[in-house]
Specification:
Two copies of one chain form a homodimer. With 373 residues, chain A is α+β, with helices and mostly antiparallel strands. The first copy, chain A, is 16% helix and 46% strand. Chain A has three domains: 2-118, DNA Polymerase III, subunit A, domain 2 (DNA Polymerase III, Chain A, domain 2); 131-250, DNA Polymerase III, Chain A, domain 2 (Roll); 253-367, DNA Polymerase III, Chain A, domain 2, CATH 3.10.150. In chain A, the strands form two sheets. Chain A has a 13-stranded antiparallel beta sheet with strand order 5-1-7-8-9-6-2-3-4-15-14-13-10. Chain A has a ten-stranded antiparallel beta sheet with strand order 11-12-23-22-21-16-19-18-17-20. At the A-B interface, strand 9, helix 5 and strand 19 of A face strand 9, helix 5 and strand 19 of B.
């Protein structure tokens, strides 16, 4: 294998695929990146066995291809080495043994490699049908739901994001059983099969980071036990979590006693202020007293002190309600909206709080209140 | 105590003094900031008993002083609370008990406080004489030496910076016994007494961060067991380390066999590249082969691979030398210079390497080579 390539071209793709390398990994060969060069171009593959990312660099973007071949470069510093190279063009050459020579200007590295034949055989071929989704839509949908997944390994299925497709309606849900985020997307074309899968949040979170050009489309190829995303020159394949995801639609109330319209930025700033009382923002509890004209937010930690703030609102009636919730959960919810106004829906102090945009009903955020005495 | 003040005015001073609060501190009252308001203005004091920082805000910069008094505000979130306040003007009021009310717009906090009478009595009065030094000079001197102090608690004296003053010559030295940084400064006025003190690096490092206006002067008031720096409206008082600092001047060779002139940026970039081979930049060793025209830098880690790079130089003679050193130590040394060219002085592969600027001899950096076989 011998080729030369522009530094930034290879660096960008190495950065994408290296996201599949897990720091926890104990299988030595999976710490490496597989380089495969043929007359069409260079493929770079990395995998932690649950997630595989493969990037293809077309021959048009390669300065010169002298000898084809393949090898596994297993070096934690590979990206730093490429990044620090003194000139724009970098030459790669595998010598007789399992070593790659990387050269640029007067600078030269010889790195020990592994045999590409030892790399696990990972099938990344297409499914016969696929779902098309706009990169922008997919990226936003992930960001608006992923924070609500569980971090508790005792309920592994809740550590994933549930994707349901029925006709041209795609529903994306995440919950840790104390809160729930649900985004509904209308697809351009209906999909023939009914889909109900759970993708590990840690994997789909990496996909969100890789998608940089939001104007493109992403193909979703769904298999029994895995999903393959095709975005630009990148194949992104994740395993699926096994088991049946809870039927979350029954969790979301339909009727509400209290409907409150509030400016998102004002409410967000006040929540952030009042949340400063207590041990840490992650654990602090905020009490919200709602009357016809305003929300009074308050926090109390006996040993420390108390905080309070007010926000103007409009409300559906003059009934009052007092309800308490986790500051962190509400901050996460508010961060998922970009709208000017949001609507907060409530029934009693022990029933779910639902938050939606005032101008768009595709995103539903739900948090359970905390009972205080 | 009752006053109102502009948010940014008090925030800036709170940020300065809070640097004296140690996260390791176990004396409860020292987690607080002492507020003392009289008709002249507001003093803010924080201390971890080794380091005390006191900032004074003149009455001219305070919106209104209604009632004087003092209290200790002991709240980890105090700075965040002030930062997040909705309006520019913040009102502070201590009620009958040990509580402070902090109010801005509709937002209000009531924080539990401690009695200011319980705060340790810390003498921060001037000495009869002092040394004047430019803030810029002091800041630079700290940055150019502090990285070389020891982090090993077994030799506490080396965890400090040694300052010697003789007439109008101030010498600042730091060493961990494997490397040494020494900066010499000429004072505008000679100081009457001979000074030889050691200031804890962790304390003087905070002073460096506080000095923002480099055009000002700093007064150094030296006492038996402490040093008081006066900068603008801030008093910064550190204890001194006890014991006699090693006589470091004998460590620095006077004559050299090899004198190499090299461009700082080129050499720095090459060192950073070659340092990428090995476990971690902190532990990697670089070999330097010097001939009349160039330096060849190389690194080797048997299991990983090898790296090499070349830099053009001019040299005093055609003698060759091979010498090895810690990549991290050389990177630290090179970061302390801002000049275009540096000079590397060497004798043998087991004698100290000395680095100085080609245009200014006030800074001497020394590192011991590492013997490799």
């Amino acid at each position: 294998m011998k080729f030369s390539i522009n530094k930034n071209v290879i660096l960008e793709q190495l950065q994408y695929v290296s996201k599949a390398i897990s720091p926890k990994n104990i299988i030595n060969i999976l710490n490496g990146i597989k380089f495969e060069l043929d007359s069409k171009g260079l493929s770079l593959t990395a995998s932690d066995s649950n997630l595989t990312i493969k990037a293809f660099i077309d021959k048009e973007k390669i300065e010169s291809i002298d000898t084809v071949g393949s090898i596994i470069v297993s070096n934690k510093s590979l990206l730093d080495i490429i990044k620090n190279m003194p000139e724009d063009i970098i030459k790669f050459e595998v010598d007789d043994g399992l070593r790659i020579n990387i050269k640029s200007g007067e600078c030269e590295f010889n790195l020990n490699c592994l045999n590409s034949l030892d790399y696990p055989d990972i099938d990344m071929s297409d499914n016969k049908t696929h779902i098309d989704i706009k990169a922008e839509t997919l990226k936003k949908m992930i960001k608006q739901t992923i924070f609500a997944v569980s971090v508790q390994e005792s309920r592994p299925l809740l550590m994933g994001i549930n994707i349901k497709v029925n006709g041209n309606i795609l529903e994306c849900t995440a919950t840790d059983s104390y809160r729930l985020a649900k985004k509904t997307v209308t697809l351009d074309k209906p999909y023939d099969e009914v889909v109900d899968i759970v993708i590990p949040a840690s994997n789909i979170g990496e996909l969100e980071k890789i998608i940089s050009d939001e104007s493109k489309n992403v193909e979703m190829h769904i298999f029994d036990k895995k999903i393959l995303f095709k975005y630009e020159n990148i194949l992104f394949q994740s395993n699926l979590l096994e088991g049946s995801y809870p039927n979350t639609s029954s969790f979301i109330p339909v009727d509400f006693e209290h409907i409150v319209n509030v400016n998102l930025n004002n409410y967000y700033a006040s929540i952030n202020r009042v949340a400063l009382i207590g041990q840490s923002k992650d654990k602090n509890i905020i009490k919200m007293d709602v009357n016809e004209k305003e929300i009074v937010l308050s926090s109390l930690a006996t040993q420390i002190g108390a905080g309070t703030d007010k926000v103007s609102i409009t409300k559906n009636n003059s009934e009052e309600i007092s309800i308490s919730f986790s500051a962190k959960y509400m901050i996460d919810v508010l961060r998922s909206f970009e709208d000017e106004d949001i609507i907060i829906y409530m029934n009693t102090d022990s029933k779910p709080i639902v938050v939606m945009s005032a101008s768009d009903d595709s995103l539903v955020q739900l948090i359970l209140p905390i009972k205080t005495f």
